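Predict structure. Input: adenylate kinase, 283 residues.
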Amino acid sequence: MAGVSRAIRACAATSQRTLVAASAVALPKEARVKAATVGRRGRGPEDGRRVQWAFLGCPGVGKGTYASRLSQLLGVPHIATGDLVRDALASPGPFSKKLAEIVNQGKLVSDEIIINLLSRRLEEGEEKGELGFILDGFPRTMRQAEILEGVTNIDLVINLKLREEALVARCLGRRMCSQCGENFNVASIDIEGENGGAPMYLPPLLPPPQCESKLITRADDTEEVVKNRLRVYHDLTEPVEGFYKARQKLLEFNIPGGIPESWRKLLEALNIEDSDNMRSAVA
Ligand SMILES: Nc1ncnc2c1ncn2[C@@H]1O[C@H](COP(=O)(O)OP(=O)(O)O)[C@@H](O)[C@H]1O
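Output follows.
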C-alpha cells in the first residue's frame, strides 16, 4: 500500500483524460476467483499483500456492518469515508461548517475534499505499517473510481443490495451510542415478498441497557435527507457499479435477511471458509 496515498493526491491533480487512460490498462479479473483465493488472514493472491476491497451500496444497506466484520476477519483496516467526514465535522471552524451544510442536505462532498481526507487516512496507516484495506463509501463517483483505479489495484468490489423501502426504514432506525461508539438499529422491518417471492424480516439490533440512554441519531438520517441521498446514489454512484462490472471486479450481493444470516451467506459468496475465528465475528 506504500505510496497509494501520495499517488491518489497526485492523480487527483492531473487531468481527467490522463486518469481514464491510466484506468484502461487495468487487467480484467474474475472477481469470484479473486475472492476464492483470499487466505485466512486476508492475504492477496499474487504478491502476499493483503486484500484491497471496496464496498458499494445505498445508504442503509449495511456497508459499515459487513465491511467492519470483514476487516476484523481479514486483518485489514476498515476505512469508511463517511466516518472521515464525520470526524472532520467534529472539529470547529469554517471548513466543518461548510462540510455540515453539504452533508446535512444529503449531497456528496467534492472529490477533492474526500480525496484529501482519504489520502491523509492512508498516510497515517502507512506510517503505522498497515497493509491492505476495506474501503466503505469510496469510490462514490466515476471520477473517484478512475482515480483509485489509476493508482492502485482494487481486487474486489462488493455491491450490497436491499429493497428501497427497507433502506429508508433502516436509515431512520440507525442509532449510535455517544459513549462507546457502537452502532445499533431500532427498526423492525417486515417486507412482503415481491412477485410471489419470500417475505423478508430484518430484526432490530437493540442496544444493551447501559447504552439505551446515550443513543444519538445522525443529523443526515431524516426522511427527507435520506431520500435525497438515495437519489444522489442513483445518479452519481450507480455508474460506478458498471465501472467495476466491466472490469469483472464486481460481486453483487442481495441482503437476504438479518445480520447472522446475511453474514453467513456473504462469507459463502466470498468463498471464505467458516471457522472458529469467523464464528466469533458473527456473534
Ligand atoms: N466518497 C465520498 N464522496 C463524497 N462524499 C462522501 C463520500 N463518502 C462520504 N461522503 C459524505 O459523507 C456522508 C455520509 O457518508 P456515509 O456515512 O458513507 O453515509 P451513507 O449512509 O449515505 O452510506 C455522505 O452523505 C456524503 O456527504
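The chain has a mean pLDDT of 84.
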